[in-house]
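Sequence in, structure out. Go.
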Amino acid sequence: MPIDKTTGEIKKWENSNNKERLQNIHSNHKYEVAITCKQKKQFWQQKRSKAEIDKAIPYNGVTGKPYTKGVSLVIQCHAINNGFEKNPVYLTLNQAMAVSPNAEVKKAVDRNGKPIISELSNKEQRVRGIKVSYMAHPKIPKKNDKGEIITNPHTQKPIMIEDLTRPKMLETITLYHASQFENLDMNMLRGKDLSSLEQEREFFRNSFKEPSTQYIESLGLNPNTQREMKAYLMAQSKGRDFAPVIDYNKNTSQEVSQENTKEQTKVKQPKQKEVSRVM
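Output:
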């Protein structure tokens, strides 16, 4: 989170502006990519067919729709980092509760199976999902005709609605893998439906426009990682097979080295012939 320049303390989310909020989200997503790199599981360095790419695309378990564009790759990193890549189905807590009213996010445990206690709240932590951003008006509690706050019967928390009189702010919502929920009826979830993505792919194939890779560029990644991920995203967005990007600098240095070796050989050969004549 950003630091308040006047107090030197970490700014609360509600006190942060859109730019500061976006920086925080980018930092979290960059961290997710870094974990994948540290584990040496960079899928953007692997040759994949279109079918393999489609299988790895994360999707929403309630709508069946895939998560696309740059954030799709970040969610794929989260899936790989946590061993969810075989079936990357994600949904929000509210969606899980709509499917199964008793669903809740699992508690985090350590290697010994003991609950992990948060140092800030002194409460048991929940497993870590992946946050995604969206623009929305600030929310306020919903009230009935009598002016009383309406609460959710399952959570007993106020039902929040957007205040359309105030400007939109960047907000986040946490996605969890289906296996990160307790009491979730998996049979109620939908399968992956890529029909909307196929329509986008058809559009790009028949137009001069290119899929946006701006989000990947905004994360502040290593130049090589950024270039490789952008290439993978282009293949995913267009529905093509993928071959890893070759490191131009590395190959160029190898080619130069090979050419130098050839030149050295050419120089040495005449000398050897001249020596043989003398002998």
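Check: The chain has a mean pLDDT of 87. DSSP finds eight helices and eight strands in the chain.
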